[in-house]
Amino acid sequence: MNLSPPTEAQFDALREVANVGCGHAANALSKLVGGRAIRIDVPCVVFTEPESVAQLLGDGDQPAVATSLDILGELEGRLFLVLEESEAHRLSTELLAYPEHRFEQPELRVLEEAGNIVASACLNAIASFTGLRLLPSTPTVSRQTTRDLVCQAVTELEPQAHRVTALQVRFATFSAPLLSGQLLVLPRRHSVQVLLEKLGV
Q1: Residues of the domain holding 107
Q2: What is the spatial distance between Cα 131 and Cα 181, in angstroms, rounded to a whole number?
Q3: Of the chain's two ends, which shows fewer C-beta atoms within 10 Å, N or C?
C-alpha cells in the first residue's frame, strides 16, 4: 500500500514526540546506570522503504541485541532498544555487577527488564504529551542483524506497506564506563494518522 509522505510540519511534530519520549527514556536509563548523564541526539524521523530503515541503525549486517515490545492501546507499533553486542554485554554486566562473556538467562532477563523500564518511560511520556492511552507488551530480547531485525518487524506490522514511518534516536553516556545505543519506534501506518490528528497537523 502506497502512502503520502508527511509534510514538513508533520515531520516536525513527530520529531517533537520522539524528543519527548526519548528524553524520558534517557532519564530512566540514567537511573539504571548509577545516575550517569545520558546524551541523546536530535531524533531522526523518516518515511522510507522498509529495507532502508535498518540503515538508521548502521551497518545492516552488524549483529545487534535488541529488546523489543509492542505498543498497544490507542497507538500501535513496536519499540526497540538496540545495542551492539559489546554494549549489551557492558550494560548487562554493569546491572548484574559481575563479569560475563556470553549471554545466559540472567543477562537476557536483565536486558528485558532494562528495555521494559526504558520503553515504559518513553511511552508514558508520549501518552502524557499526546493524551493518548499507550501500553507496553511484555518485552523480548533477540540477537540478530539489524537488517533481519527491521525486516521481521516490518513484515509483522505492515506486510503490504511499500513505505513505513520510523522514529530513531541515538544515545550515549557522557562519562565512563561508556554506553551507547539507539531507540527505534515503528508505528503502524494508521497510528501515524491518529497521532498526527491528535497533534493537529
Answers
A1: 8-199
A2: 28
A3: N
Q: How many CB atoms lie within 10 A of CB 8?
A: 9
Do β-strands 63-73 and 134-136 pair in parallel, antiparallel, or remain unpaired?
antiparallel
Task: Report how many domains make up the chain.
Answer: 1
1 within domain boundaries: no
Amino acid code (one letter) for 23: G
Query: Rounded CA gap, 171 and 194, in Å?
Result: 27
d(CA 188, CA 183): 17
**Contacts (Cβ under 8 Å, ≥6 apart) of 163:** 2, 3, 5, 47, 48, 49, 50
Bond prior to 177 in cis (omega within 30° of 0): yes
For residue 3, is it within any domain? no
Q: Over the stretch 76-130, which tens digit does the pLDDT of each residue have?
A: 999 999 999 889 988 888 888 655 555 566 677 889 999 999 999 999 999 999 9
